[in-house]
Specification:
About 40% of the residues lie in helices and about 20% in strands. The chain has about 350 residues and is α/β, with parallel strands linked by helices. The protein has a single domain (about 1-340), classed as NAD(P)-binding Rossmann-like Domain (Rossmann fold, 3-Layer(aba) Sandwich), CATH 3.40.50. The strands form 4 sheets. Strands 3-2-1-4-5-6-11 form a 7-stranded parallel beta sheet, sandwiched between helices. Strands 12-9-14 form a 3-stranded mixed beta sheet. A two-stranded parallel ribbon has the order 7-10. Strand 5 (about 120-125), helix 6 and strand 6 form a beta-alpha-beta unit. The radius of gyration is 19 Å and the shape is globular. The structure holds nicotinamide-adenine-dinucleotide and uridine-5'-diphosphate-4-deoxy-4-fluoro-alpha-D-galactose.
């Protein structure tokens, strides 16, 4: 069964391609490579022994999408393609709404034209804004403080509206918590094109000697040690969630539209992450506590029980594996995929 994976060359997409191949699906990757490299897909082939069909294209390009749907008998679409830097979205809201929202609408209309009615969408825990309590269940109110989060909320709403008009569509809204880690081979992982915005790649950059020290954004939150708490989830677990979501469509075991959290249910503070990474890497991680980052919240973690109940998915990998695998990727590929492409 062919699955169109938009953004499939990216961090979560490339790991999901492995999970799809392992489960007997055939991923067709459609990506404009704005934040990724085809080397990731070569590495997926190295890991799985299976070649992947790659199409360079932009989800805002209707003709390119029609061509893909004409050439391939697509069972479902997994829609990862999007820009994801919160800070950049505040500076460039038009770019974010155009890329993420217009791109998604263009994709959904191409699906409608070509009678493809199954879609899994990468949403985010950011849609919960600053939750009143934790753990977060799927029925919590949604809100946003930045255009990135705004784009996710709008796309979710567009999909809910599509379902109202076309209840025969199968739509899964997957709200990811904080994806970290890498494939256990150390061959693929997160490869930020610039100085990382997110905690884990920043810590890994300090450990490998590329970055001098970590700024811990805020030491006065009402948390275990004053630093921010998040629900970090191993990307390989997250990738498997997409396969479970697809299988739930196949088995007709879910409503035609559903929303689930993909998290572990456990929160770790920034300093706990630093300690765990120190242990995994054997390196010292220099850090300094600085001011809070605008827009950050104190604490965010999932109640993941609905995903287990509905699609039979739960995270299996713990913090140790998240740090070990990130370190393996980072230490084997200190410059991400770049080193290889310059050769
Ligand atoms: P990523 O940047 O590694 O992957 C996104 C991919 O989409 C990239 O390969 C990029 O080149 C491609 N892309 C972007 N715009 C495109 C367009 N217009 N047309 C075609 N391809 C395009 O990011 P990721 O971490 O793998 O995230 C995947 C999805 O999951 C995104 O939608 C992101 O918003 C969402 N998400 C990520 C996180 C996270 O922390 N990583 C958390 C929650 C949700
Ligand atoms: N942090 C630091 N220093 C850094 C980077 C982060 O102290 O250099 C702290 C943050 O203040 C926060 C925690 O580490 O307490 C995690 O921050 P990240 O930037 O890694 O992750 P966020 O929870 O802020 O946001 C991420 C993604 C969003 C997504 C959200 C929920 O960036 O896109 O998870 O899925 F929406």
């Amino acid at each position: 069964m062919k699955i169109l994976v938009t953004g499939g060359a990216g961090y979560i997409g490339s790991h999901t391609c492995i999970a799809l191949l392992n489960a007997g699906f055939t991923p067709i990757v459609f990506d404009n490579l704005s934040n990724s490299s085809t080397i990731a897909l070569d590495r997926v082939t190295e890991i799985t022994g299976k070649k992947i069909t790659f199409i360079k294209g932009d989800v805002r390009d209707a003709e390119a999408l029609d061509k893909v749907f004409n050439q391939h008998d697509i069972y479902a679409v997994i829609h990862f393609a999007g820009l994801k830097a919160v800070g950049e979205s505040v500076e460039k809201p038009i770019l974010y709404y155009d890329n993420n929202v217009s791109g998604s609408i263009n994709l959904f209309s191409a699906m409608e034209r070509n009678k493809i009615t199954r879609v899994i969408f990468s949403s985010s825990a950011t849609v919960y804004g600053d939750p009143a309590t934790v753990p977060i269940t799927e029925d919590f109110p949604t809100s946003t403080t930045n255009p990135y989060g705004g784009s996710k909320l709008i796309i979710e709403e567009v999909l809910r509206n599509i379902y109202t008009a076309h209840p025969e569509w199968n739509i899964a809204l997957l709200r990811y918590f904080n994806p970290v880690g890498a494939h256990e081979s150390g061959l693929i992982g997160e490869d930020p094109s610039d100085i990382p915005n997110n905690l884990m790649p920043y810590i890994a950059g300090v450990a490998v000697g590329k970055l001098k020290q970590l700024s811990v954004f805020g030491g006065d939150y009402d948390t275990i040690d004053g630093t921010g708490v998040r629900d970090y989830i191993h990307v390989v677990d997250l990738a498997k969630g997409h396969v479970k979501a697809l299988q739930a469509f196949e088995n007709k075991s879910v409503d035609n539209l559903y929303t689930v959290n993909l998290g572990t249910g456990k929160g770790y503070s920034v300093l706990e992450m630093v300690e765990a990474f120190k242990k995994a890497s054997g390196k010292d991680i220099a850090y300094t506590i600085t001011a809070r980052r605008a827009g950050d919240i104190a604490c965010c973690y999932a109640d993941p029980s609905y995903a287990k109940h509905l699609i039979g998915w739960e995270a299996n990998k713990g913090l140790q594996a998240m740090c070990d695998d990130t370190w393996k990727w980072q230490s084997n590929n200190p410059n991400g995929y770049k080193e290889v492409s310059n050769n």
